[in-house]
Amino acid sequence: MLADLWPLYRLALVTPRLELRLPREDELAALAVLAGRGVHPPGERPFLTPWTDGGPEDRARSVLRGHWQRLAAWDEAAWALGLGVFRRGSGEPIGLVAAWASDFAVVREVATWSWLGLEFHSRGYGTEARAALLTLAFDHLGASAALSAVFRDNHASQAVSRKLGYAHDGITVDARDGEALVSDRLRLTADRWRTVDHPAVTVTGLAACRSWFGL
Fold it and tell me: Which class in CATH covers the domain with range 2-142+200-213?
C-alpha cells in the first residue's frame, strides 16, 4: 500500500464537521477544480504569491504543482504538510490547509496557510480547519508557537486568527502588485492555545510518521 511507503497518508484530523488528510489523486483533482472556480472574491488578492492569477486551469494546475512539490521536497528538517479539507459524511472537498516548519525538532514553531472554495466561505469551516492543524501542532507534535502573516485587508483570515487567540507580533512589508503592503505578523503560543475554546479534534495515524516531523 502507498501508506506503507509514505505513512503521512495514514494521518487524519477529524473535527465535528470536517476531515483533513492527504488527498488521493482523484481527490486532488477535485480540489484543483474547486480552486479553479475561485477561492476569493474577484478583485481581491489575499495571498502574496499570485497563484490565483490566470484562468481556472492555471489555478487548478497550480494546486497540483504545489501539492506534488510539497510531497517531493519533504524532509524532516524542512517539511510542509498540505491536507485536503473534506466534509464529514459526504467526503466533499472544500479546500486545502497547510502547516510548515524548518528545524522543528529544535525551534518548535510552525506556520500555516489555507484556502477554501468560495462557496464554502462564511460557514466557520476555516476556523475549524485551522483549529485541527493547531491541535496537531500543539497537542501532538509539541509545538511552542504557531505563526501567521496576514494582509491587513484579508479580513476573513484576520478574524479566524483573533478567534483562535493569536496575538500581534509585529509587521512585515512586502511588494504586492507594485506597491508596498503591510502584513500583520501574528503568534499563538502553546500556553495561550490551552485557554482558547476550539472544536474537538481527533488525530489518528500519527504514530507511524512522527519521525517524519523530526521527532
Answer: alpha beta
